[in-house]
Amino acid sequence: MLFNQVSGQSFKLQFENLIFKKDTGRIQQFLEKWEKTDSNDPELFIANFNHCMLKSKMQVVTPKQDPNNKNVLQNLNKNTTEEELSDFILGTIYYEPVSLSIGFGWISKGIEKHPDRLDMRFEKIRMLGEIEDYENFIAEIIKTIDYSNVNKNKWIWTDGKALDNPREFMLDSIEDYQVKYDNSDSNEELEYKKRIAETALRYYPDHIESLSNLSKIFMLQERYDKALEPLLKAEKLNPEGYFVLCNIAQVYRLTGDNKNAIKYYELVLIHGEEQYKIYAQEQLDHLIRK
Prior knowledge:
Elements: H1 2-21, H2 24-37, H3 42-56, E1 57-63, H4 72-75, H5 82-88, E2 89-95, H6 97-113, H7 118-130, H8 134-150, H9 166-180, H10 187-203, H11 208-220, H12 224-237, H13 242-254, H14 258-271, H15 274-289
Antiparallel strand pairs: 1-2
């Protein structure tokens, strides 16, 4: 067992060195050797996934419209600076589907064999967000939350290291991924987001961010009666949470309950950061003038 761990670390370092040197000619051969030596090494699955992602990433370069309608590519020369080049050239990123599919096959198999490796799950989630496969992006997030209840958040990270505060790390990271790849508030995607929030709250009813997310979804759907319920739960968990207090005030304002809206905007003035205080005061001035 000790030999396998040391061997795995050595293979990983060699792989990283080949990637750093961009020695693409040797990488595939090296990965095949690694697989023959230790086909169950979790780092092997991640290495193959990353290799496939790098292979699949393509960029199409096209000229922007020149103000004088000239062919800008003909005007470029060896003295053209990078800043000047960026003014005239557009680069569109896309992913070649065959390598992409093979890569996802590797990381999915790795997760199946090593389900406690949270880094594998996050690598897959990150890439699904990158290629804008939103349906599978959401599905993988939900699978991760579901499994956290199975393994009681005994997550393992790179090189088999245990995580500090694994529950918080998992939930915070999922929140970050949603923010980073949140490109739409369509009805379909709001339902996807609602599923994530509801799944998280099934296991972690005290997770304030999920309560806030659920409320935001109901607000966007103009279901204000439903939006208030999770916010009031979040307030009980943290009575001084100014973000929640501000959202409660917003819901009351939108439903015409000015008395409670004023009450909560005044609480934001007490507990909020400066930008929230400025906003709350603006809303109070408007409500009081009514």
